[in-house]
Amino acid sequence: MGSLKGKRILIIGGTGFVGMYLAKRLSEVPCRVCIFGRSIDNAKKAEFAKKIEFIEGDIADYKAIEGSVKNKDAIINLAAVVQDYAEFDPYLDLEVNCKGQLNVLEARKKINSKAKYIFIGSRTQFGRVNEKDLPVSEDLCQRPISLYGMHKHTAENYCMLYKRAFNLKSLILRFPQVYGPSLTGKNAHSIVDRFIRKALKNEEFHVNGYGKGIKDLIYVGDVVDLVVKILDSKTEEGIFNVGSGEKIKLAEIAKKIVRLCKSGSYKPVPFPKELVNFELGNFYFDISKAKKSFNWSPKTKIDEGLKKTIEFYRRHG
Questions:
Q1: Is 151 helix (H, G, I), strand (E, B) or coil?
Q2: Could you tell me which residues are beta bridge partners of residue 218?
Q3: Who is most buried in 12, 111, 137, 170, counting CB within 10 A?
């Protein structure tokens, strides 16, 4: 980590679940960390917040982005909008994922082209995949079936375009669902998070698709380990799938949570009609490229990650 000490690192969307973990870890290196986000008040209450610079702004505002990327050694774009499909705002999603990405790329091109850039993509970019294509490699054709997946796919293509046109290099990491305790106490918006909160209240929770779907879940600490290794490396471009290296059925996750919580129950149910068209089916990543490139491997097994998450929410509610 010697090469990272004192580096100026901007985390766009840094007030979110993964961003806060990353900011905490980098502040311990120590790096000069700056978080850019639309709502920073809750993040500023974190115990390590005094070590962090905060900029309140919108990624869709070019001037705000231009000012934030100046003099940074590295930029990580974690900006995303987590929305319920029942109240989905497609234009907000477009603003954050597409216009926001263009703003960052334009600002880099004009005033800070040398900064290392990491864009966080999503498993949703691939849509539904065939069983023969599992585990999913980096070069599998993407066929998103949601606007979020479509916009992430488009944002990734913007990176490719700016590389061809302006030699602007980008690193792209595609995440599956990330879980773990939330440093800000807010809902982490993961399946695991929702199930645990219900179980700890001794409530019943529903497992869609009768729990038969195969998932790829990765603990937040393992994601942060990889991002830090990439920042500390000489690698400046490339596309990498990120995952746990393991597959697990949703019903098995639910069963483990009830057992570890010693409370609650789950009920296997069919997919709600409003979600059927967005169901992604079985999915897990081939992570061999990331493992080989950065000497990285996920360390947290599912039972250990669930225990850590459950104990956190027992203490913090």
A1: helix
A2: 178
A3: 12
